[in-house]
Write a structure and sequence with these properties.
This protein is an alpha/beta fold and 540 residues long. Helices cover 21% and strands 32% of the residues.
Length: 540
């Protein structure tokens, strides 16, 4: 039996190893999200000429100091300058030049009168508003001065930095990079896009890990799926390390008889550790082959991504000189948690100041979509009571409100960009969770609003489907109307009981079947009113 090491020891071992960082020159478009490898200074002033910021007339401000609607000042129009024109024009007393936004200011002028404050007649402009010196223009170097530091070494290059580099004339920039390869392992895996057959599952980890690396500004090479054959694994790893300095694999690290990755890595190089006292992710393995680092992550999607965020991402970021934002929030646990007593990174959803454990397991794909981050549970901590204050390491979105119950909330179109976490559940549970304070708004069967419901049908099947919680009798029950519509559209069921607004949403025709009454629970009257306004179909 292999020896498990502590989280701290695993991080110490990882920290002690150097990762090769390469410097590459890339185009500006390729540089987005990457890490700068140099300090970049502006070789020019921006703008490098004084330019107009409004369409109108370039003037000497001293000539129009007394201009007004009742006392317009008459100036002679001597020329016109458009953006990009290279005319050499000088204006004198009593003169002006018609000018467009972005055009170079003529010599002698110091301001622009906007076109709407002028009137043109017979080659003269009548100025109806005074302007101060410098008004409606950008002076030379007023945006970026010559020699200004516009990009720091180690800084992430975002959209605004791309714009600054382009404005200073740079078409390329030096960036830091790490050559990283990604594998998934297992005979059970097939690639998305292939036909799904029994006992096979689509490869998830390659895409989530690769996307996480791209998000960091790296460009991983995906080498495909490693089959459960020691010789094949060894050959593919050796090919990959010729092209990469770091390899990340997922799956094949547990104690199963077909987990051949461990055997292959033992033959190829050195196992630095195999197994960490943590859940999820206990089979995490670190290896070196020909001085190349191999992070072998667990196969379950949530386990793989959690270990990546906790162990791998910080190491890569430090090597690149990238400072990660350690985003942590505190909140109260929405329900009692019972742990196994070992160190655990529990996936959670955060809604305002409430923490909801996600209990679908590390093998559940939906966990990846739901979580805000994870809550750490210490070794030996077996019970955490509801209401206990905890800290969450956030790597995804934190929600503003929790809505639960009947899927009527799927019809809410807009609540001022508020992020809503939706919990599908029956009325009885929704009411209970609302009373506990775990839901801001609950949609339940009640006696407040009437909603019509219909039967839609086709001759494919006599099987009736309905959404759980509405009280309809059916052969098949699903979680929400979108799932019901999919089953109906694809002929899995022949009949479906749907409430009227979903009938309209999906553009279906159905036979009127009756009415139900729902109730909306909220301790905030203003929030309830806003919800009801959004659900325009509700009628008392």
């Amino acid at each position: 039996m292999r020896e498990l090491i502590s989280v701290e020891k695993a991080k110490k071992i990882i920290s002690s190893i150097d990762i090769r960082v390469r410097v590459r020159e890339v185009s500006l478009i390729e540089a987005l999200h990457k890490i700068s490898a140099e300090d970049v200074y502006s070789p020019i002033q921006i703008p490098h000429f004084p330019k107009a910021t409004r369409d109108g007339f370039a003037v000497r401000s001293e000539d129009v100091i007394f201009a007004s609607e009742k006392n317009p000042i008459k100036l002679k129009i001597i020329d016109r300058i458009d953006a990009g024109d290279e005319k050499s024009i000088k204006i004198g007393c009593g003169e002006c030049v018609e000018i467009s936004t972005g055009a170079k200011m003529p010599e002698g002028s110091d301001s622009v009168v906007m076109i709407e404050h002028t009137q043109v007649e017979d080659g003269f402009a009548f100025i109806k508003k005074a302007v101060a010196s410098g008004e409606n223009i950008m002076k030379r170097g007023s945006d970026i001065e010559l020699g200004s530091l516009i990009l720091r070494k180690g800084e992430r290059i975002d959209v605004s930095k791309i714009g600054m580099l382009a404005s200073a004339g740079f078409d390329k920039v030096l960036v830091k990079d790490i050559d990283i390869g990604v594998f998934s392992t297992g005979d059970e895996l097939i690639s998305p896009g292939e036909t799904l057959i029994d006992a096979k599952v689509y490869d998830v980890n390659s895409y989530t890990i690769s996307a996480s690396l791209i998000e960091m500004g790296l460009k991983p090479k995906f080498f495909g799926i490693l089959r459960d054959d020691v010789d094949v694994v060894k050959d593919e790893i050796l090919k990959a390390i010729k092209l990469c300095d770091v390899i990340i694999t997922t799956g094949g690290t547990s104690a199963g008889s077909k987990d051949v990755l461990v055997e292959a890595l033992k033959d190829l190089g050195e196992i630095l550790f195999h197994g960490v006292k943590v859940k999820p992710g206990k089979p995490f393995l670190l290896s070196k082959v020909n001085d190349k680092l191999i992070f072998a992550l667990p196969g379950f999607p949530t386990s793989a991504l959690t270990i990546f965020h906790e162990f791998v991402k910080p190491k890569l970021a430090k090597s690149l000189g990238l400072e990660l934002i350690d985003n942590r929030v505190k909140g109260k646990l929405a329900k009692r948690v019972v742990s196994e007593g070992r160190r655990e990174f529990m996936p959670v959803v955060v809604v305002k100041d409430r923490i909801y454990p996600v209990e679908r397991g590390s093998g559940a794909i939906t966990t990846l979509n739901e979580v805000s981050g994870y809550m750490e549970i210490a070794e030996g901590e077996e019970v955490i009571e509801r209401g206990d204050l905890r800290e969450v390491k956030v790597f995804s979105k934190v929600y503003d409100l929790a809505f639960g119950g009947l899927d009527v909330f799927d019809l809410i179109s807009n609540l001022n960009s508020i992020k809503i976490k939706k919990f599908y559940m029956d009325s009885e549970r929704a009411k209970l969770e609302f009373m506990k304070g775990n839901l801001d708004v609950a949609f339940i069967i009640g006696d407040e609003f009437f909603i019509n419901y219909y039967l839609v049908k086709n001759p494919i099947s006599s099987t009736v489907g309905a959404v759980k919680g509405y009280g309809f009798k059916a052969d098949v029950y699903v979680e929400n109307h979108h799932q019901l519509y999919y089953l109906f559209k694809n002929g899995v069921i022949g009949k479906a009981l749907m409430i009227e607004p979903f009938i309209e949403l999906f553009q279906l025709e159905g036979e009127y079947y009756g009415k139900i009454k729902i109730e909306i629970l909220s301790k905030n009257p203003e929030l309830k009113d806003e919800v009801v306004r959004s659900l325009e179909f509700l009628k008392c």
